[in-house]
Amino acid sequence: MFGVLFPNRSFPLDISTFTQVDDHRWVLDMNYFVGEAYDQVKEMCIFLLNELALPAGKALAVYVQSPGSQYEYRGAVHSACPSAVFPLLWPTTVANNGQMLLTGVGTPPLSAQIGVSIEDLLTLPMLNVGQQKRIEELALKVGKNLFNFMQSFCTVEGDKMLIPMDILNRWFKKFQDKAKRDPDYLNHFTL
């Protein structure tokens, strides 16, 4: 039905690598796959093996779970989008919005897991949750870079920071110059 690949970390893996929980759900225990270094696995490619793998209107939803957390949705593949690469962005705290509890007992497991579930396409969010979180992280890192630059040129009066009028232009020029000199510079802002 489906296969997965962890870029730069694995060969393609088929459904037999996962433990089947029921007719529509599978789990990959990351302790079995990579041990405690699960958080070093940053992304996953999932793909349907053929156009008949899923019934019309259905999708394979991907969830991740860190030790002690609930499952968090990361994205889905379906007949119109038969493959995708999702950033895994492992949860760091217990999530209240876990939509998929595969253990059946209500207690999160002690190992990280990836869950795959057949679900109605219309009930799933259309955006790639992992991609949205990456965009937010990128915006935060660029904003922090700007703030640090501004601090080095500002004066403080009470609870206000006074900055030169051309500070944004100066910061952006410096940002562009660094990106031109060092092709890897912009990668420092990604996860």
UniProtKB/TrEMBL annotation:
Which species is the source of this protein?
Sphagnum troendelagicum
**Domain of life the protein comes from:** Eukaryota
Tell me what this protein is called. Answer: Hikeshi-like domain-containing protein
Which PANTHER family does UniProt cross-reference here? Answer: HIKESHI FAMILY MEMBER, PROTEIN HIKESHI
Residues forming the Hikeshi-like C-terminal domain are: 135-187
Recorded coiled-coil stretches: none
Q: Where is the Hikeshi-like N-terminal domain?
A: 17-121
Q: Which family, according to UniProt? A: Belongs to the OPI10 family.
